[in-house]
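Changelog note: in this version the structure field was regenerated for every chain. One regenerated record is shown below for reference.
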Amino acid sequence: MPAKLYAALIADIVASSAQRRLRNRLGATLARASRKHLAEKWILLPYAITAGDEFQTIASQPAAVPRILFDLRAMFQPLSLRVGIGVGRINDRIRPPVNQLSGPAFESARTAIDRVKSGHAFKFDTLTVFVSSDEEFDQAINLLYGLNDTLVRDVTSKQWETIRAALKYGSVDRSAHHLGLDVSTVSRNLKRGYYWQQSQTVKAAESLLNRVFH
C-alpha cells in the first residue's frame, strides 16, 4: 500500500518587522485558529510558532488546505500571510509539537515558502505556493492561487470584515444582521472584496486536490 500523503503548511507574516507586538497578536490569532480548525477537523495538530513570526501545521487531508487558507487570511487581517504548502509523506508519528516532525511534506513546504519569499514563482507577486511530486498539479494549482492572490492583495479591511462574517454565518442576510448593515451593503462589500471569486478558488482547488491526492 502506498504511504499516506499529507499537506504540511508553513506560513509567516508579510513585513513583520513593521508590526508592533506581533508575537502577542500572532499567538492569540493562532489560538483561535487552532480551536476552530481542530473542531472543523481541517488540521491534525494545533498551529505552532516555530521561529519568529513563522508557524506550521498539518492539514487533516490535502483537500482541506483551500478552506484553511481562506479562513487564515480572513482571520489574520489586517496582517498579510505568505504560505508554503508541501504535499508528501511524514516520517514520524503525528503528534505535537509539529516542528519536531520531518519528512518530504515538510521539506516541500519549506521549498514552497522560500519560493514565495523569493518572488520567483511567477513574474508577478504571489502569497501562496504548493510543492508536491506532481509537476502538472503544481503548475495548475499555483497558477490558480497566483491569480487568486492578485485579487486578495486588493481586499480592504472593511471588506475582510464582511468576508469573515460571511464565512462564519454562511449567508448574506445573517451576515448583515450580525454586522448591523443592510443586505445591499454586505452584498457590495463581498463583491468588491472578491468573496465569490475566492470561494470559487476554494472549490476548484479542493476538487483538484481530491482528484490528484484522493
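Spot check on this record: The chain is about 50% helix and 15% strand. Residues 141 and 205 are 7 Å apart (CA to CA).
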